[in-house]
Amino acid sequence: MATLMYLLTALWRGSVNFWRRLRRRRIDWVRMEVSGALPELAEPLVWWQSRFGGVATPVSLQILRRRFERLADDPHIRGVVLVIRDLAAGWAGIQGLHEILHIYRDAGKRVVAYLPSADTRAYFAACGADRVVMPPTAYLNLTGLRVEVTLFGDALRLAGLEAEVIAVSPYKSAGDQLARASLSPEAREQLERLIDDRFTMLVETISAARGLGNEQVRALIDRAPFRAGAACKAGLLDAALYEDELEAYLRRLDETATPETTTPGKGGDGLALIDWLQADRWLPLPPARREHRFVGVIPVVGAIATGTSRRSPLPLPILGGNLAGSDTIAQALRRAERDNRVAAVVMHIDSSGGDSFASDLIWREALRLSRRKPLVVSMGDVAASGGYYIATPARVIVARPATLTGSIGVLAVRPNGATLLERARIGVGVISRGANSGLFSPLRPLEANERDALTRTVFETYAIFKDRVREGRGIEEEQLEPIAGGRVWTGREAALFGLVDDLGGLPAAVARARELASLPPDPRPPLLMVRGGGRRDLLPRPFPPAEPPSFLSALLEEALRTRVLAALPFVFREA
Predict the structure, then answer these.
(1) pLDDT-derived band of residue 555, with 50, 70 and 90 as boundaries?
(2) 243 is in which domain, residue-wise?
(3) What is the DSSP string of 79-113?
(4) Could you tell me the sign of the dihedral formed by the alpha carbons of 150, 156, 157, 163, in that order?
(5) Measured in whole angstroms, how far is the alpha carbon of residue 237 from the centre of its chain?
(6) CB proximity list for 226: less than 8 A, separation 6 or greater
(7) Among 151, 232, 404, 471, which residue's beta carbon has the most beta carbons within 10 A?
(8) What's the sign of the alpha-carbon dihedral 70, 76, 77, 78?
């Protein structure tokens, strides 16, 4: 069956490529737009979303990587105009974009970044190009980095609510968003260190891209924003021009290009600049490849929770948005373990953690898999706390320099609505047996014995977390504790402490996985995506499911539940 599919695919692609060569359209430069979050791997759309809803698959780094590989293979294409608009990617994701652009440029091609408008993040992304241009009236808002942390402690108390937080260390400060009105000294110290390291990366990247000294770049950032003309004079831009002037600008670039980078016979007869969607219809398809063994890729994206992967409707600082369910991830790991085509596995983690118990369930499945097949972890923008917990069974951990990781620690968050009930004149009658029977009740404050019991569970879970790290990473207790306690590190800091092995992205992780599985080196290896979900091979449950709760009751139960969390301190927003 596999042989038949290969032959049919090879025949179809060969036919398409023959037809495209016959009707070849001239393409000199390709215009491509990047925007949005730029994840490493795009979540597949439900079939009806693309067919009837008009929803396009989000552009991911993996999609961009394949596009640029096809463009690099075409000897007639001279370069790409990369339009960067409304970019919301994380810093590690932008470093992944730089890797793609540098590989493309190393193939003898050119990249011109066009910025309709630009903040610090967009300009950082544009530094991966040969040239950077903006419209003459646009402003380059290279104003630096700023972290704004929203703290709800006083606001909740005004409403009669309170979050009681128990953490293993002041550095494990995720609960501060619900309990405090200002940053703790430890949280401020940590954020200062992280933003210092990230600012250093920004300055070094701009310095290398623009040929400016580090101190010169710092001085320019302090003087920003700049109108495009002033930015050109400062050396931050190469030209100030409108988009309709791009073709003339590219023609001048081609005229000054070396013979090796200019297509023969096309120097002075105009220039063909077309959009990627048009170019995609004319570029040859990559040849079919017959593979028997693959590296399987399992994405873990979002806050870690028990059950299936889903999207939480709750606007919670810690467990809102996409949820990576332990059942779904475990199912994917088991599928990869059983699939004979999968020689090794890369687990791509982009998660700030979440439920500590769910993290341990995923850890167990990852450990089982790693005993049978090589397991490598690739870290995205963030793989911290529970996201780091599940990475510890891997033989190799790969992170980008700007990845946020570590945060080895645990906290418990318990809501307390006693003041709200009192203000609303709501009485609560209680009959209980057991000294700690009210431990998880959100209707009153913790008693001293209950606080002791909850503290014990937090530190027991923390001890288990550290055991996982010691066993997986081979770090002794006296070396681990100073870098644990909830402390967050960038990828390049974590590499110094032994928390990660290599600096790089998904391609580097796949290369290490192929090496461990004794597969031949391959700069463009085919990947096999392995996902959980669906009815097939569902994990068996010990009891039949109960009647599903209503949406409102599920919402209230989730919001009022006492949690033991392995979550990143502050999912902070950079302005």
Answers:
(1) very low
(2) 23-143+224-279
(3) EEEEEEEEE---HHHHHHHHHHHHHHHHTT-EEEE
(4) negative
(5) 29
(6) 139, 140, 142, 220, 234, 236
(7) 404
(8) positive
What tokens were used for 35?
């925007």
Nearest-angstrom CA–CA distance, 445 and 447:
6
Is 407 within a domain?
Answer: yes
pLDDT score for 267: 43
Residues 458 and 563 in one domain: yes
412 assigned to some structural domain: yes
- The pLDDT > 70 percentage for the chain reads 86
**Sign, Cα dihedral of 366, 91, 191, 212:** positive
**Whether 486 and 529 share a structural domain:** yes
Residue 572 CA to residue 146 CA, distance in Å, equals 10
Q: Are 263 and 299 part of one and the same domain?
A: no
- Residue 321 belongs to some domain of the structure: yes
Where residue 436 sits, what CATH number does that domain have? 3.90.226.10
How many other C-beta atoms can be found within 10 angstroms of the C-beta atom of residue 267?
12
Is residue 29 a contact partner of residue 81, using CB atoms and an 8 Å limit? yes
- Number of Cβ within 10 Å of residue 546's Cβ equals 6
pTM: 0.89
Q: pLDDT tens digit string along 169-180?
A: 999 988 898 899
CA dist 327 and 289 (Å) reads 33
Contacts of 356 (CB under 8 A, 6+ apart): 386, 389, 410, 461, 465, 564, 565, 566
Q: Is 30 within the bounds of a domain? A: yes
Express each pLDDT in 261-303 by its tens digit. Answer: 444 434 445 789 999 999 998 888 887 777 889 999 999 999 9
Cα-based distances in Å from 31 to 65, 269, 273, 421: 15, 20, 7, 60
Domain count for the chain: 2
Buried b (16+ CB within 10 A) or exposed e, 269-308: eebbbbebeebeeebbeeebeeeeebbbbbbbbbbbbeeb
Q: Cα dist. 135→112, 206, 234, 245, 477 in Å?
A: 14, 20, 16, 10, 56
Torsion sign (Cα): 533, 537, 542, 544: positive
DSSP tag of 162: E
The Cα-based distances of 308 to 324, 359, 479, 559 in angstroms read 7, 13, 36, 18
For the residues of 331-374, what is the DSSP string, one character each?
A: HHHHHHHH-TTEEEEEEEEEE-EEEHHHHHHHHHHHHHHHTTS-
* CA angle 464–175–430, rounded 5-degree value: 90
pLDDT digits (tens, 9 = 90+) for 437-476: 888 888 889 999 999 999 999 999 999 999 999 999 999 9
Strands in 131-134's sheet, in edge-to-edge order, are: 239-240, 131-134, 110-114, 79-87, 29-36, 273-275
pLDDT at 561: 58
Region 114-143: mean pLDDT is 97
Q: What is the C-alpha to C-alpha distance for residues 60 and 529, in angstroms, rounded to an integer?
A: 14
- 172-223 pLDDT, tens per residue? 988 898 899 999 999 999 999 999 999 999 999 999 999 999 999 999 999 9
Beta-sheet pairing, 404-406 with 488-490 = antiparallel
Alpha helices in 224-325, H assignment, sequence order: 228-234, 246-256, 276-279
Tokens standing for 207? Answer: 């310095």
Which residue shows structure tokens 């290009």?
Answer: 257
